[in-house]
Amino acid sequence: MKQAIFAFLMLWMLPASAEEKIYELEYETDSNWASIEIRDDAVFVNAPADSTMSITAKDGLRAYTISPKKVYLRAKSRGVVNMNLFVKSTNNVLGITLCKGSRNSYAWLKSDQSKQKNDLQEQDHCEQHALVLNLF
């Protein structure tokens, strides 16, 4: 009986597991190549049943790769590329690294709550951000 009570108390004291939610992100760049990498427990996922993923590129794409932790794209030229992505996460803040192909280009990622832009004019074209996905 004591073991059952102890087990119940241990389960009761555990924090409730956070629910995973799917968030839609908008992405834009004018770079000839770019990448987005997730630094925490979130993952990129396919679009939910009531949504679609899309990508448009001014001059077309040479390559587009999406894995659970990273999105990479290479455009045919330095023209604007727009896309939407979906992320599954239990957190309301997404740790990301935005990379772009040249100093003069930009890359931004936006959720309903915030927008992060990489427009560094330095040799290292990658920049770390924390993107707010949803407010409490």
Shape: globular
What's the total count of β strands? 11
Sequence of secondary-structure elements: HEEEEEEEEEEE
Number of helices: 1
Strand content: over 45%
Radius of gyration: 19 Å
Distance between the termini: 40 Å
Range of helix content: under 10%
Description:
- The chain has one helix at 2-13, and strands spanning 21-29, 33-38, 43-45, 55-57, 61-66, 70-75, 81-89, 93-100, 107-110, 115-118, 126-132.
- The chain has 136 residues and is mainly beta.
- The strands form two sheets. Strands 1, 3, 4, 7, 9 and 10 form a six-stranded antiparallel sheet that branches.
- The relative contact order is 0.26.
- Residues 4-14 have low confidence and may be disordered.
Brief sketch in words of this structure:
It is built from 1 helix and 11 strands, in the order αβββββββββββ.
Task: Please tag this protein with its features.
single chain, mainly beta, six-stranded antiparallel beta sheet, five-stranded antiparallel beta sheet, 1 helix, 9% helix, globular
What's the arrangement of secondary structure elements?
Elements: H1 2-13, E1 21-29, E2 33-38, E3 43-45, E4 55-57, E5 61-66, E6 70-75, E7 81-89, E8 93-100, E9 107-110, E10 115-118, E11 126-132
Antiparallel strand pairs: 1-7, 1-9, 2-6, 2-8, 3-7, 4-7, 5-6, 8-11, 9-10
